[in-house]
Write the structure tokens for this entry.
Amino acid sequence: MNRIILIKYGELTTKKSNRKFFINTLYNNIIKKCKDLNVIISKDISRMYIEYESLDEELVIKRIGEVFGIHAYSIAYKTLTNLDSIKSTIREIIEDLDKDKKYTFKVETKRSYKKFLMNSMECNDEFGSFILKNYKNFKVDVHNPSLTFHVEIRENYSYVYLNEYKGIGGYPVGTLGHAMLMLSGGIDSPVAGYLALKRGIKLDLVYFEAIPHTSLEARNKVIELSKKLSIYGGEMRLIIVPFTKLQENIYKNVSENYSITIMRRMMYRIMEKLTLRFKSLAIINGESVGQVASQTLTSMSVINNVTNIPVIRPVACLDKLEIIDISKKIDTYDISILPYEDCCTIFVPRHPVINPVLSECIKMESTFNYEEMIDEILANLNIITITPDMDKNKYDDIL
């Protein structure tokens, strides 16, 4: 039997006039994901089909399980569109099952090829009768069967399968524009990045580094997190922002309790300039309402005041345990908890302000020339190309 993977689009089918664009993007993303495998991928308006070498089946399934935009998939058997061929395929599927076990079953036929000699209900009866006649251990149960034989009838070929597996859903990455993720070494921002990718957003990653206060281990930690995100988002840029001088000046010139607020305002100023330089549409971060002092609604409002670029916070209304659950699912949790501090955890004030006043921030910022330092930062960015299999040690000499 010719086994293929049959992919169902789900949410993509709601896109009406843009449906072709979403399907084509998904098609291209799967091609990139499987570029090193011997696969043939074809598509139509309702399904996508992957033909593959039998030895690669598990690997292909793993790869498509990391592609956003897939609602569900099945291991299907491709056959000619005629009754005898379809029945022969059903027979071969049953012959692979445990012959000593009793089964309940039903048949669900989807007849896309309207010129076929029977309609869907007639096909259900025909194939169901064939099974009952030839296999005494099968009994019909249309309400709660142990097996469902799915038959999809199309013009040139038909497809038969038993099981349907859930994909990771969402939209294909690249269909909903480009944004920049503020990626720290913590638990929240990688999860925020994953959720943004799930909504079809292509990401660049931005890491604020303050060597010698932050370490090369902290950078490598962020590279490892970036690699995990690139499994789902494809090749990405990681932009390393040399933040040391500006961060030191903040702590020299600003009241300690306002230091985190001012630091975040400076980061947002830099992010705005980066979004314009890299033609991005939004800033994404891992802020969760009320989790720390800078993430109260008052703090967010004061910090946001420095930019007109939309700020998206995918985990804003999730609690920490929900965020941790997702981080474990995407395999970033164990990396995130490694004990290497980032810009947001060094120099933490003893009593950070939770309801900052905008006029106070502006007054403190006027005491030093941060614009000049931001220009210097933007002239000295380091950019790393991230792929899932890259060597992080290659970049240890960037300072």
Remarks:
- The CA atoms of residues 79 and 88 lie 9 Å apart.
- Residues 2-169 form a domain with the VC0802-like fold (CATH 3.30.2130.30).
